[in-house]
Amino acid sequence: MKHPYLLLVFLGIAALSCFPPVSAEETGGDQGWYVIHCNVYGANIYLDDKFVGTAPQGALTVAVPTTGTPYKMLRVQKYGYSTFADSITKVPVKGGTVDLYATLNELPPTTPALIGGDMGWYIIHCNIDGATVLLDDANKGEISQGMVYVPVYSTATPYKSFTVKKEGYTPYTGTISRLPSKGESVDLYATLNPVATPTATPAGIGGDIGWYNVHANVDGAAVTFDNDAKGKIARGELSVQVYVTGTPYRAFTVYKSGYIPFTGAIEHYPAKGEIVDLYATLNAEPATAVPTPVPTTKSPQPPVIALIALAIGGICSGLLGKTRK
Q: Do 54 and 17 meet the contact criterion of CB atoms below 8 Å apart?
């Protein structure tokens, strides 16, 4: 044969054609799934206010793109139950799943409507059980197991503020921005901090008092002076009492889970009756980077390719031998 190399090329092409090409689906990443578990059948499920279905018996599987803007919030609600809302911190990789869980709590029975109109609820959350809750100065009950349910009518005059108070704690007052619609629950949050009480001071120290006012942008953040706990931020600040003849503090730290701790220097000590302002800004911890899906690659060619290659080599050797003769 005059052109044995042409036969070699032909056989190689024929061997490679026996294997299907790699599809774009195998090499790229486009779609994953959220698997949403809920304890109440028929509850409405939303991703960033986008309705994605109702809770079945078991779990609802929702396809989501792995690229683009990820969803940030899961919300599940049903009439007669408190609304569930939680942030979404994970994005599924291509072909992968992320499980999300929602637990709805049944709302307590309510008094039959006396003034007419549809009913919703305020759910006031607080860190101190036994605290009294007031809506525009109207007593609505006490905190129990961290919360209290307050039924309201959607046709009633809207409340403007709520107050949570208990003896020994600084009262908390917050604004109410809207009235719940029929079957809806609106969550309100309050954090009570103990009232600062002066400690017995040895005669040698003296009783002159000043204050630090610690200002921060995150309520509930803890404050320490030289690792000495002083309380938590409420309504943007915390007042810390100090004795002007005591040992001066050198630094203060403000911290809360989910935020980068802030530490600042204390450069001025208050005089008697003086207030010194300290400021802290907490920044949220950066979100955990989502691993980039690794493109799927084909595994090494199966042994049959090696056998074909050996066969081609043998044929070519024979042809070359005949050509030389």
A: no
> Structure tokens of 147?
């919360």
- Contact call for residues 92 and 27 (beta carbons, < 8 A): no
Helix (H, G, I), strand (E, B) or coil at 242: strand
pLDDT tens-digit series, residues 47-68: 987 889 999 988 999 999 988 7
Q: CA nearest 71: which of 51, 57, 56, 53?
A: 51
Place of tokens 């609820």: 121
What CA–CA distance (Å, rounded) separates 291 from 239? 44
Whether the CB-CB separation of 44 and 54 falls below 8 Å is answered with yes
The residue type of 275 is I
Query: pTM of the full predicted structure?
Result: 0.33
AA letter at 109: P
Say how far apart CA 44 and CA 22 lie, in whole Å.
40
Interval 243-255 mean pLDDT: 89
pLDDT in the model for residue 202: 43
Counting every residue written for the chain, the total comes to 325
* 293 CB-near residues (< 8 Å, 6+ apart): 29, 66, 93, 94, 95
For 137-179, what is each residue's pLDDT tens digit? 889 888 987 888 888 888 888 999 999 999 989 999 999 998 8
Domains of the chain: 29-102 (2.60.40), 119-194 (2.60.40.1120), 209-284 (2.60.40.1120)
Taking residue 253's Cβ as centre, other Cβ atoms within 10 Å add up to 17
Determine which helix (DSSP H) or strand (DSSP E) holds 97, and give its type and residue range.
Answer: strand 97-102
Q: Tokens 């029975």 — which residue?
A: 109
- Residue 309 DSSP label: H
H or E element: which one contains 229? strand 228-232
Q: How many C-beta neighbours within 10 Å does residue 161 have?
A: 12
Within 13 Å, how many C-alpha atoms sit on residue 12's CB side? 9
